[in-house]
Amino acid sequence: MPEIWEAYVTGPLTTESGAPVADNQQSETAGPGGPVLVQDQHLLEKLAHFNRERIPERIVHARGAGAYGTFTVTKDVTKYTRAKFLSEVGKQTETFLRFSTVAGNLGAADAVRDPRGFALKFYTEEGNYDLVGNNTPVFFIRDAIKFPDFIHTQKRDPYTGSQEADNVFDFWGLSPESTHQVTWLFGDRGIPASYRHMDGFGSHTFQWNNEDGEVFWVKYHFKTDQGIKNLTAEEAAKLAGEDPDSHQRDLRESIERGEFPSWTVSVQIMPAAEAANYRFNPFDLTKVWPHADYPLHEIGKLELNRNPENIFAEVEQSVFSPAHFVPGIGPSPDKMLQGRLFGYGDAHRYRVGINADHLPVNRPHATEARTHGRDGVMYDGRHKGAKNYEPNSFGGPSQTGRPLWEPAQVTGPTGDHVTPSHAEDNDFVQAGNLYRLMSEDEKERLVANLAAAISGVSRDDIAERAIGNFANADEDFGKRLTVAVQALRG
Ligand code: HEM
């Protein structure tokens, strides 16, 4: 019997309050064949608990799987960041990583064309650091104000109750900044064969700052040591039908076998002074920094080596927030990231509750949280009788006076400003570059995948506008797509 069941194999079945249960098969009735009695506390408690088993699923990334692991520093990065968990080669930090798909509901199939979430929690001695990324280096939009609209087009239509190609391609067609990410998504990497066989990215640009207060902008890359493996659209459709839990099962079973998946972790590093004149806006999430401009610097190794014991407690109730930074790491002015700094904590308070950060999977493991926040639903009394205010004269925890990150320089009036464009910025340049990098076979599969999806659009103007974005990225891309969509739409 697995060790994780042992606590439940001794002693009798009990009620929630611990009293022994006499009968778990028959409800108590008023005489044989009579109605059920309200005094059957065990029955009432069972039905009531059952009704409350679900919490709201995540509004995005509802479907996922997680595992614990270890991050090991392999290169000295102390001249770039003062984060303690990165302070020494060989230093190890416990982690928890949750993978996910984006659009599907909790019970959706894993093998679908969709970005994969790559949400990583480092349990550091200076607090938990969450890097809530994806398996893609870029995103569909560059301003958080568009996110709810974008996600509405990815989820179920309010009238049909299904995902609709009309909504998906209408939004993308009207949001040309999505062209880069959509080209990526419909290419070969759009359906990873498993969570182990894909890369991860922090995607946004983040601030690193060192002991001297010098600032660097960084982008994180997690390169899979298992090698990239993808599914074709046909393979995925078959697998999704036969084994909807394919990715979740693969992750758990590989860890059970002792085959621990790992990723080589690197960062691109931009000295702060170079940001203003870089050829692309370095804080625009729809753009990558080409490696020729900023090469990868290896910093460590991430290994996943322990399965959660209880999916609900540790995966469903796990919470990750891009606002969870530690000293030496902070946000950039990326407008998407700024919106996310609010969005996640708010989701956690709604979905799991105000004390979500107290749960075992979410609380710091290498230090403790010493806040003056108290009480609320499911508060566990961890602070005992300690004073709950600051300043206080009783030796309570107090502020340090040093922010986690360095201040940003800002100028100009407030306003609904468009994200500033740098010399080579437009919505299509990097999508075109990505297309031209592909082999002939890859281009064919990309065009076939996109054409199949666009052919589901009901209105010509929506399909044409969507195709127009790809034509703007590359003339050949647009021409081939037009022909392929016409062939399918007749
Ligand atoms: C402004 C844009 C965005 C907003 C407002 C937003 C909001 C959210 C919300 C509310 C959740 C559910 C959180 C929960 O219930 O615990 C979520 C999950 C997630 N988001 Fe975003 N998101 C945005 C963009 C992004 C981007 C750009 C990425 C990746 C680069 C990303 C990656 C993820 C991941 C990985 C999860 C799942 C976290 C987990 O496993 O618990 N999101 N997002």
Automatic annotation (TrEMBL):
Keywords: Heme, Hydrogen peroxide, Iron, Metal-binding, Oxidoreductase, Peroxidase
The protein's name in its UniProt record: Catalase
Active site annotation, chain numbering: 61, 134
Extent of Polar residues compositional bias: 15-29
GO BP field: hydrogen peroxide catabolic process; response to hydrogen peroxide
Entry similarity comment: Belongs to the catalase family.
Species this protein is from: Streptomyces coryli
Annotated region (Disordered), positions in chain: 15-34
Key word Metal-binding present: yes
Cellular component annotations (GO), alphabetically ordered: cytoplasm
UniProt superkingdom: Bacteria
EC number: 1.11.1.6
GO molecular function terms attached to this record: catalase activity; heme binding; metal ion binding
Entry coiled-coil feature ranges: none
Keyword flag Oxidoreductase: yes
